[in-house]
Amino acid sequence: MKLMDALEGRRSVRRYDRRPVPESLVIELLRSAESAPSAGNLRARKYIVVGRPDLRKALALAAYGQEQVEEAPILIVILADFDRSRTRYGDRGYLYAILDASSAITCLLLAAFDAGLGACWNGAFDDQMVKDLLGYSEDLVPVGIISLGWPLESPPAPPRRSMEELVRWEME
Ligand SMILES: Cc1cc2nc3c(=O)[nH]c(=O)nc-3n(C[C@H](O)[C@H](O)[C@H](O)COP(=O)(O)O)c2cc1C
User: What is the secondary structure of 57-84 as a DSSP string?
Assistant: First the structure.
């Protein structure tokens, strides 16, 4: 797939069929996520892959009942590793760790689309509930729960803001 087709064609997909996603494909997606840039190359991010139905159900509750989180056969929780980034960058490390995790998510979403999967970045969840369910250290902050599966919908492109509204040019 051409990059521009992936950029234009990727959508947030929230309905999936029950066919499993092979582990080898999940590993490929994680590799794609790790192709993302990273501040100082610290790669201040971690991944937790969840397939267990009981845990998906509990995470869906933590995500305020969002159905795609329970329905997806695979969830990938991406965490910012604040401690790792802070050791080099001090307070700015907080921002960098979140950006490291976010850039990885973007690559993962594009790779999922390229592989024919549907995926959605779920950012609305209760941090504490997610932490209690997954049990990681205090220095990790969840940035997204990515729900993944074979798509049962192809949503239309959402409206976009105009470039005039978004961009200021300072050329001369
Ligand atoms: C930081 C972030 C948080 C998001 N959280 C949610 C979410 O909790 N639930 C959801 O259904 N979609 C969520 N989305 C997906 C957006 O709704 C979606 O990207 C947006 O509507 C544009 O649609 P598109 O991804 O199909 O281009 C989130 C996206 C981002 C970047």
Answer: HHHHHHTTT-HHHHHSSEEEEEEEEHHH
